[in-house]
């Protein structure tokens, strides 16, 4: 078990370099970044360098480079245009099903929309087009380009425990040391919960 823990610890430490890759940071103590003050207009606050491009323009440029069929491009366009100011694919209310609405508007199946959604979620900035904070963080974990199932499992199953600093509970549930739990937390804190 010790070599596994050491390798996991080394992987997590290497992932700390990933923070430089992210364009923005959350300033608040929470993984959800609730204390961060963000201007309402994502097109004004998102900049890809000196070009001043909007988030939508930036994502559409990435879409144009993809070799996918026209129907998939249409679906992707609808996904991009329905992202909220934080970069999430979320309706105004919990009941609003944007996947269904996009399927209707693009005259496509919900399965097709979900398949294309995975493609858009691979765009830069990492975490874009997620449907909730947990999915946003998991997308960013997958962008690390390493097979760290422990990090993803920790996000999937223990996000509330991290927010409440229940390290012992997490360590016991994942069968790892509290030191590894704290390293996982450092990695998660470097992710951007509002990629828009």
What does this structure look like?
The chain is an all-alpha fold and 196 residues long. The protein is built from 10 helices and no strands. Helices cover 53% and strands 0% of the residues.
What are the defining features of this structure?
196 residues, mainly alpha
The profile of the biggest β sheet is:
none
Helix residue percentage: 40-55%
Low-confidence stretches are 8-50
Number of strands: 0
Cα(first) to Cα(last) distance is 40 Å
- Strand portion, in percent? under 5%
Write down the overall geometry: elongated
Question: How many separate helices?
Answer: 10
Helix-and-strand structural type: mainly alpha
Taking all residues together, what is the mean pLDDT? 78
User: What's the alpha carbon Rg, rounded to whole Å?
Assistant: 18 Å
What pattern of helices and strands is seen along the backbone?
A: HHHHHHHHHH
Q: Helix and strand layout, with pairings?
A:
Elements: H1 2-15, H2 42-45, H3 55-64, H4 70-81, H5 98-105, H6 110-120, H7 133-142, H8 149-163, H9 167-174, H10 178-189
Helix pairs in contact: 1-10, 3-4, 4-6, 5-6, 7-8, 8-9, 9-10
């Amino acid at each position: 078990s010790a070599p596994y823990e050491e390798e996991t610890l080394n992987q997590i430490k290497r992932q700390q370099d990933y923070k430089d890759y992210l364009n923005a940071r959350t300033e608040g103590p929470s993984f959800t970044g609730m204390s961060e003050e963000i201007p309402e207009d994502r097109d004004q606050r998102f900049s890809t360098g000196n070009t001043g491009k909007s988030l939508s323009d930036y994502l559409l440029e990435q879409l144009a480079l993809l070799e996918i069929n026209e129907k998939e491009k249409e679906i992707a366009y609808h996904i991009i245009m329905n992202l909220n100011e934080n970069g999430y694919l979320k309706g105004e209310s919990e009941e609003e099903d944007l996947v269904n609405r996009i399927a209707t508007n693009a005259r496509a199946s919900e399965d097709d929309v979900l398949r294309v959604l995975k493609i858009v979620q691979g765009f830069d900035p990492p975490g874009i087009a997620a449907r909730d904070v947990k999915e946003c963080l998991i997308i960013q974990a997958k962008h690390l380009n390493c097979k760290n199932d422990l990090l993803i499992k920790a996000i999937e199953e223990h996000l509330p425990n991290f927010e409440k600093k229940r390290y012992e509970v997490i360590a016991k549930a994942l069968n790892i040391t509290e030191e590894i739990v704290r390293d996982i937390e450092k990695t998660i804190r470097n992710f951007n919960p509002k990629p828009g």
